[in-house]
Design a protein that fits this description.
Keywords: FAD, Flavoprotein, Oxidoreductase. One of its GO terms (cellular component) is membrane. By secondary structure, the chain is of the alpha+beta class. It has helices spanning about 30-35, 85-95, 110-120, 155-160, 195-205, 245-255, 260-265, 270, 280-285, 305-320, 360-375, 390-395, 400-410, 415-425; strands at about 5, 10, 15-20, 20-25, 40-45, 60, 70-75, 80, 100, 135-140, 145-150, 170-180, 185-190, 210-215, 220-230, 275-280, 295-300, 325-330, 345-355, 375-380. Helices cover about 30% and strands about 25% of the residues. It is globular, with a radius of gyration of 21 Å.
């Protein structure tokens, strides 16, 4: 059965809007019928991409009926998960089999397929993005056939398809390499920039996960580490003021009165107190992110990370941009996925955010040329301005991917105008 609706669609931040025909197939057969029926199709997950990957006024397929665990393998510690499953639900369901994802980011609202297709990641110098832990997947191709892809079956499609921006077909099931459930101990504290730059190279090896957030007008950063532990559960301490409420309040004040921004950012030390907590990984990774924003993120060679961050901080501070949100700095291990921003490159990931009520272009137009200077690759789900000619220079397997895509989808069923700009040299 196909449930066809004409609806307004927007992503989480509200920056991407469309009026597509939304189809929510209830079975694989219904999905295949829809794929064979319509000439132009995009697929949407939870709408957590900031770029226009899902934007279309044609057919938009929603996989909310494709949720849950299809099967699990205790011996290999793998689980095959339906593609529309949200990451927070995957954590809950995997726990029934004493399994957990190897790594996660601090947002767990995305669909699994959306997170995999865009190379979504957490942090950890020895930990790859989510897509690198995909052991296989079922894909509905442009002609409506369902094919299984792994290292042995359709191996080339497997290599390319783990990060494909939905341009090779629709993932319906994804086999994830997991690990036994594990606890993490979280430490959050303030750290001076001098201390950070002196010790970060050692800290990134010492801790399983490490990241920091820096405010352009504050001499201190918020440092977060996560490490495996056997210690008893320790709840996160109750904050005297909700961090998300505070973030929204300060972002609104900065928008309405930009001159207050330096003063507000220097108050970070008042509101951020050292804290520690212990919980299962799936519960401690995510943080509340209800204040909406738009985001630009680039991945750059690991040895260029601090230099790029310092230049970015200097540029945005000098320009006195009206941006309260901090800059986020993380580590990601390299992989072998053709269109991965981490292809054959251990990376630093730097993210710049702007409050959704403000024009992000003021900030992003200053930041992006700095990223380019360091040879950075954009996160596919975040905002950037690169087109096919520039992207081709950043990815050694670009031409092979495009040849495979053209073979699978000669009529460009899966391409919307945004993807045409990314993939086709004008």
């Amino acid at each position: 059965m196909i449930n066809l609706q004409h609806e307004h669609w927007s992503n989480w931040s509200g920056s991407q809007k469309a009026s597509p025909k939304i189809i929510q197939p209830s079975s694989l057969d219904a999905l295949q019928s829809a794929v064979r029926m319509y000439p132009k199709i995009r697929t949407a997950g939870a709408g957590h991409s900031f770029s226009a990957l899902a934007q279309t006024n044609d057919v938009l397929i929603n996989l909310d009926h494709f949720r849950g665990i299809a099967e699990h393998d205790a011996a290999l510690c793998q689980s095959t998960i339906y593609a529309g499953t949200r990451l927070y639900a995957a954590g809950e369901k995997l726990s029934a089999f004493n399994q957990a994802l190897i790594n996660q980011g601090d947002i767990d609202q995305q669909s699994l397929a959306g997170a995999v297709a865009t190379g979504t990641h957490g942090t950890g110098a020895g930990l790859s993005c989510l897509s690198a832990n995909v052991a296989g997947f079922e894909l509905v191709t442009a002609d409506g056939d369902a094919v299984w892809c792994d290292a042995e079956q359709n191996a080339e499609l497997y290599q390319a398809g783990r990060i494909s921006l939905g341009s090779l077909g629709i993932m319906t099931k994804i086999k994830m390499q997991c690990r036994p459930m594990y606890r993490l101990k979280e430490h959050i504290r303030l750290c001076s920039m001098d201390e950070l730059t002196e010790h970060l190279d050692q800290w990134k090896l010492k801790h399983r996960h490490i990241e920091f957030w820096s405010f352009i007008h504050s001499p201190q950063v918020i440092l977060k580490t996560l490490d495996e532990t056997d210690e008893p559960m320790q709840p996160k301490p109750a904050a005297w003021l909700d961090e998300d409420v505070l973030l929204k309040f300060c972002a609104e004040l900065t928008r309405l009165c930009p001159v207050l921004n330096p003063w507000l950012q220097r108050l970070v030390s008042v509101f951020v107190q050292p804290s520690a907590a212990v919980d299962w990984s799936s519960r401690i990774f995510p943080a509340v992110r209800e204040t909406r924003f738009n985001e630009m993120e680039y991945q750059l060679p690991i040895n260029q990370g601090l230099a790029c961050w310092e230049e970015l901080m200097h540029c945005l501070k000098k320009a006195r941009v009206p941006m309260f949100f901090p800059i986020e700095f993380r580590y990601v291990r390299g992989d072998d996925i053709w269109l991965s921003p981490f292809y054959q490159q251990d990376s630093v990931s730097i993210s710049v955010h702007q409050f959704y009520k403000q024009d992000y272009r003021t900030v992003f137009n200053l930041a992006e040329p700095i990223f380019w200077k360091y040879g950075a690759r954009p996160h596919w789900g975040k905002l950037h301005s690169l087109q096919a000619a520039e992207l081709r220079e950043l990815y050694p397997k670009w031409d092979e991917f495009m040849q495979l895509r053209q073979q699978l989808d000669p009529a460009d069923k899966w391409l919307n105008p945004y993807l045409e700009g990314l993939f086709k040299v004008k």
